[in-house]
Write a sequence for this structure.
């Protein structure tokens, strides 16, 4: 019997390669390699019946004057009884783990930085590998940095099935692939002695098995006691998205920084999204740095999304993934960083202890809480309350520069 | 008419200056504030990557976050 699971797969294979490509972060310094640094982070996400926690370790080290290497080890330990798991299976909590490893290398040559890297992510029913290459060039007296990026990804999608003896193994009859490509261009521009701008544009295109093998859609079924039945979702085999973002950061006269961000996103599935964010950074008492963030996100649903289809096989493509629905999301975050000295370790130049907390609130506009369907008491399919997600995200990490 | 002439003169001036070398309007020694760590777009890459991951898992939008990585194996 097939084990039907769901949802936390959304947490797979995310790109810690972002962490490896920090060279473009400091245009004020011109073309230089990033500092030697090590970070050990504990992360915890708790919301919507899902708890995900684990470590992330990132180390970066220069070799000579023109090469810098980095490596990241990241784990998601997942414990889930999400709304999707409950609606689809009535199942109780289950657990799984995802491990991601990545390596990167940067070469500095004159005012150019060449970067490449590789990322591998594994869990029991999903494997993802990706590689990237980028060129970053400083120009116009180092006021401007242009970055171009190309990346490829190869995913293998499997499905777990419960065997007759109770063991949980990959279903030998199910193996799918995804081929991913990404093209990006970025511009970082010093505008004044107190202001910098970053503009990024990225095209991502995927081809293959893009839906989740466990996730189901629901459709009206008068013969069912709940008033609806389930069938597997079906997505198009291709998706291409375009995103453009701008970040503007300003140094305030009393030594603090304020940053505004905006991103526009659109894709071939009919989704449009707007992201806006304001960050404020405030150093205090020599050793402390405080951060605050407010983030707004809004998206329209995919063309083939519905919370409740009128009948079975209603269309060629059908989805009930709440991440493809219409919703608005708000994030409020605060962080604190404390710099301290480590005695008897002269090779450590600087060290910080950091804590960061974010609260996410997502208001879904066309995703209903199907756990509450109760025709006997007058709550018919399509009349349930809309779902709302609250999540807390905690990060605690230590950083050393050496 | 005057406005037209002014525009023409401005365009001619812009065309001429475009041929010359661009002088950095913020000199190296004027970048003290920009070089302050609090002005880095990504002060803590390990934390930024994690939060990008959280948002990308919960939202359909992806990309243009500024790193050479980006993209996600999320379904």
């Amino acid at each position: 019997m097939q084990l039907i699971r769901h949802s936390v797969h959304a947490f797979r294979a995310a790109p810690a390669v972002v962490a490896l490509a920090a060279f473009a972060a400091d245009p004020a310094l011109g073309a230089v390699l990033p500092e030697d640094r090590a970070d050990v982070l504990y992360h915890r996400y708790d919301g919507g019946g899902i708890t995900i926690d684990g470590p992330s370790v990132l180390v970066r080290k220069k070799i000579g004057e023109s090469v810098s290497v980095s490596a990241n080890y990241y784990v998601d330990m997942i414990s889930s009884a999400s709304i999707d798991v409950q609606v689809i299976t009535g199942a109780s909590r289950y657990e799984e783990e995802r491990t991601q490893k990545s390596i990167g290398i940067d070469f500095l040559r004159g005012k150019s930085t060449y970067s490449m890297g590789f990322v591998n992510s594994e869990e029991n029913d999903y494997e993802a590998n990706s590689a990237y290459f980028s060129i970053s060039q400083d120009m116009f007296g180092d006021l401007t940095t242009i970055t171009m990026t190309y990346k490829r990804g190869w995913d293998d999608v499997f499905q777990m099935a419960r065997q007759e003896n109770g063991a949980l193994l990959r279903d030998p009859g199910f193996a799918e692939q995804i081929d991913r490509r990404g093209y990006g261009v970025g511009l970082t521009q010093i505008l004044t002695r107190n202001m910098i701008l970053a503009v990024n544009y990225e095209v991502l295109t995927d081809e293959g098995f893009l839906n989740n093998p466990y996730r189901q859609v629901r459709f009206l079924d008068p013969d069912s006691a709940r008033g609806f039945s389930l069938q597997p979702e079906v997505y198009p085999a291709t998706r291409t998205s375009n995103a453009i973002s701008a970040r503007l950061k300003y140094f305030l006269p009393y030594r603090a920084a304020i940053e505004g961000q905006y991103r526009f996103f659109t894709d071939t599935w009919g989704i449009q999204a707007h992201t806006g964010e304001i960050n404020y950074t405030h150093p205090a008492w020599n050793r402390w740095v405080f951060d605050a963030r407010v983030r707004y996100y809004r998206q329209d649903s995919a063309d083939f999304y519905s919370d409740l289809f009128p009948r079975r096989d209603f269309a060629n493509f059908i989805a009930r993934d709440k991440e493809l629905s219409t919703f608005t999301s708000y994030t409020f975050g605060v962080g604190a960083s404390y710099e301290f000295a480590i005695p008897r370790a002269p090779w450590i130049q600087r060290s910080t202890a950091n804590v960061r907390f974010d609260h996410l609130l997502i208001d879904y506009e066309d995703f209903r809480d199907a756990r509450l369907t109760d025709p006997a008491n007058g709550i018919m399919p399509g009349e349930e309350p809309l779902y709302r997600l609250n999540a807390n995200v905690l990060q605690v990490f230590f950083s050393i520069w050496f | 008419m005057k406005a037209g002439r002014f525009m023409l003169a401005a365009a001619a001036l812009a065309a001429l200056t475009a041929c010359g070398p661009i002088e950095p309007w913020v000199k190296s020694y004027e970048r003290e504030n920009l070089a302050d760590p609090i002005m880095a777009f990504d002060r803590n890459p390990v934390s930024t990557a994690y939060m990008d991951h959280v948002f990308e898992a919960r939202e359909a939008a992806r990309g243009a976050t500024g790193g050479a990585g980006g993209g996600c194996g999320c379904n």
About this structure: Chain B is about 45% helix and 0% strand. Chain B has a mean pLDDT of 77.
